[in-house]
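[recover] target loaded
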């Protein structure tokens, strides 16, 4: 873990600057609200609590880290990794400097949408954690930008490091999806199909919104030795009582 400077005093607030919140809520205020709601969800659905070891897959500039720290008084050992270098630089010089048990790692992984010059193939990424060292691992709005082989690899890596709960979000395509399309309630139509079978929304930005067949998702998790409990999101218009737009999967080692 890094060890920078003083800890922030009680009541100090870390805000993410506007240029870095474009993909994480739109404004600093919205990013904070979204993060706080997710931290609550992590506790309610995933059993997250203070003093647990956390791995944040695709941490961005620290939206979730700030929310978790605020909720649990910065008592967790947290590691977040991210493919966007500027996000990690901000998180290190602000969050880690104030709270040294919150660590941020840059992995220069390729993504056609968010890191097109990345030098590491997604299927070669090794998560920055030891085997079975993580109590709570999560990935929000990550698999919605990954295709089949990369998704399967990320699930396997999550299974490798997690001894407790792995919570992730997806756009799940199942037998109810055509009904939502017909009813006109779905946010996405996912009209395009990749050779590996995943669906995507935009022909000119293929990783901007990616949907996976439920059968494929079950295979990713099953092959990795994880359970697979689905909580429907609101994006299709048929997720009654949904807490978030994307579908949530809560998984644990079998």
């Amino acid at each position: 873990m890094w060890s920078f400077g003083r800890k922030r005093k009680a009541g100090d607030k870390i805000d993410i600057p506007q240029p870095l919140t474009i993909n994480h809520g739109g404004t600093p205020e919205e990013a904070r609200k979204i993060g706080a709601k997710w931290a609550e969800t992590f506790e309610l659905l995933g059993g997250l609590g203070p003093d647990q070891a956390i791995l944040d897959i695709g941490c961005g500039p620290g939206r979730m880290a700030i929310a978790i720290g605020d909720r649990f008084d910065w008592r967790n050992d947290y590691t977040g990794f991210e493919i966007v270098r500027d996000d990690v630089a901000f998180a290190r010089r602000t969050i880690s400097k104030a709270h040294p048990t919150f660590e941020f790692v840059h992995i220069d992984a390729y993504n056609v949408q968010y890191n097109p010059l990345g030098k590491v193939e997604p299927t070669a990424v090794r998560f920055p954690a030891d085997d079975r060292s993580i109590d709570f691992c999560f990935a929000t709005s990550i698999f919605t930008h990954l295709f089949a082989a990369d998704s399967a690899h990320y699930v396997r890596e999550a299974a490798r490091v997690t001894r407790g709960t792995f919570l992730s979000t997806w756009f799940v395509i199942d037998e109810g999806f055509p009904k939502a399309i017909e009813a006109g309630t779905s946010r996405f139509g996912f009209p395009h199909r990749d050779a590996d079978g995943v669906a995507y929304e935009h022909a000119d930005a293929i990783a901007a919104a990616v949907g996976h067949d439920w059968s494929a998702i079950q295979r990713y998790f099953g092959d990795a030795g994880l359970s697979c409990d689905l909580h429907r999101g609101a994006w299709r218009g048929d997720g009654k009582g949904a807490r978030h737009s994307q579908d949530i999967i809560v998984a644990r080692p079998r």
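[recover] notes: The two ends are 30 Å apart (CA to CA).
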